[in-house]
Amino acid sequence: MEHAIKAGGQVWTRLAYALVAALGVAIMVIGAHEGRAHLLFGGVMFVLIAATGCLHMRALRPARDDSAPSHAEKAAWSQIGLGWAALLVLGGVPLGSLRGSLAGYLLFGTYALLVVCYPAFRRRFVEEHRRYREVPEDERDRAIRAQGDYLSKRLLELAMVALAVAWVAWPAPFRALGGPLQVASVLLLPILAANVVGEARVAWLHWRDRQ
């Protein structure tokens, strides 16, 4: 009975992700037809969120030895979801979403705070759900976390260099951004994106370690 209920819940979750992906495709079509970059970007993000949700369901299945995901692995997936949601809204600001409104400044302030507190959210999640574990497992988690942090830092460095080179070589799109809010949003995007990729690396390493 319990297995049937769980299977039914997974079916509904997959259906929800399919609807999110279909909505994303529809938004992309509308954005391409009307020439609105922020709608096109938003549609792509909806599809990525749906795909990530499906991967999350697959990754959290028990391994062959019935070992369940650790809290560090679950924390990585929660941070990926948080990062995608932040990128969905913040990425639309420099593309024309919320231009000229107070909501744009409020959202920017929120996501600036999110960027600063991003590692703290992960640590709090792990600490609140941590149970007693042996030292070797803690060392393994720290080693995996170090690999994810290294990747995110390297990607951030490369992204900032690429952004600077693009700004010098092709300044027209950056001049078209408009006010300082749009420019500042562009600068925050690589930070969030690098963190999401780093968390994805951590989640994948944890999953591979359980197989």
Report on this structure.
It contains 7 helices and no strands. It is mainly α and 211 residues long. The protein folds into 2 domains: 1-59; 69-210. Helix 5 runs antiparallel to helix 7 (180-210). 26% of the residues are buried. The model is unreliable at 1-5 and 132-136 (pLDDT under 50).
What is the gist of this entry?
The chain is mainly α. It has 7 helices and no strands.
Question: How many beta-strand segments?
Answer: 0
Unreliable stretches covering 5 or more consecutive residues: 1-5, 132-136
Q: What's the structural domain tally? A: 2
Please tell me the overall pLDDT.
77
Can you tell me the overall shape? globular
Main beta-sheet strand count, sense and barrel state: none
Please report which band the strand proportion falls in: under 5%, 5-15%, 15-25%, 25-35%, 35-45% or over 45%: under 5%
The number of helical elements comes to 7
Helix vs. strand class:
mainly alpha
What separation lies between the terminal Cα atoms?
A: 28 Å
> Order of helices and strands, N to C?
HHHHHHH
Work out the radius of gyration. Answer: 19 Å
The percent range for helix content is over 70%
